[in-house]
Amino acid sequence: MGNFIKVTEQASRYNNLENMSIQEILSNINQEDKTVPDAVEKAIPQIERLVSAIADKMLQGGRLFYMGAGTSGRLGILDASECPPTYGVPYGLVIGLIAGGEKAITQAVEFAEDSADEGWSDLQKHFINDKDVVIGLAASGTTPYVIGALKECRKRGIITGSISCNPNSPISDAADFPVEVVVGPEFVTGSTRMKSGTAQKLVLNMISTAIMIQLGRVEDNKMVNMQLSNIKLVDRGVKMVMDNLGLSDYEKAKDLLLKYGSVKKAVESVGSE
What we know:
alpha/beta; five-stranded parallel β-sheet; 11 helices; 5 strands; globular
């Protein structure tokens, strides 16, 4: 790797924030946020290589793990938790781990991220194996909890990726497929829950969506395997069934959907009759 520059710790481009009006604060944050998608775009070749590697493993029955500390860990848990309801995949196919355990989702756990051994220990609880892929999330690129786990994975032939917001960071050096989205200094100096967190969220959206499409969980542009977990989603599913089968009877489509449990199965049931 080249020279490691901790851009995420560099001073904000803005001074005297406490003297700004609310409008100035909001406008300046928005100006900074506008730069994030451009930074993500530059990383698309790296993201593509990572997604291809993940898809290959998951098509063979592997799982995807996200692991991080603080904001990064929470974002991984968020993305993992949304895969079952959105795409109908089983819980446990995409898993999010955070330094400090479940408590750390809502409360800061002091020094949890500083253990280089705890991350690998957490992975072992899930019987990690070489069919799986582990993505380490760390805006700074220096989190011991994550880096230690990635190093242990590589020793055992487990494919690793990383998402960080500093160039040439230690986490990139520890990963087979590093992704670096360099968004520059934060509006509030060092507050990586801002642009860095937004960048990580955008990349996670891309990774999980692209993988689920590769796994056949999307047809055309529709979530045909989504869980019917509320009235809104049932209504959406009914309309998908009506559209796919050319039905005009809402109740008939709803009966089919609820009988078979997903849009895909409801549509296939008619074709098989």
